[in-house]
Amino acid sequence: MGQKLKWTDTYDIAIALEEAHPNIDILSIRFTDLWQWIQNLEGFADEPNKSNEKILEAIQMAWLDERS
Fold first, then answer.
1. Which residues of the chain have pLDDT under 50?
2. What is the pLDDT of residue 3?
3. For 3-54, what is the HEC assignment?
4. Has residue 58 been placed in a domain?
């Protein structure tokens, strides 16, 4: 991956999460787990404290959309 992922790269993060966790029930994920999984994505390079519930929810919904 050429560019580093930031919290604002909602759709790109959703794609990476789908590749990393293809069998997870997206709607049952705790935000604390989702936050950690995003931190662990290859290419993610943003400040951990720049995230909030609104951002995590947007990523979760983009991930759900990506799967369907």
1. 1
2. 78
3. CCECCCCHHHHHHHHHHHCCCCCHHHCCHHHHHHHHHHCCCECCCHHHCCHH
4. yes
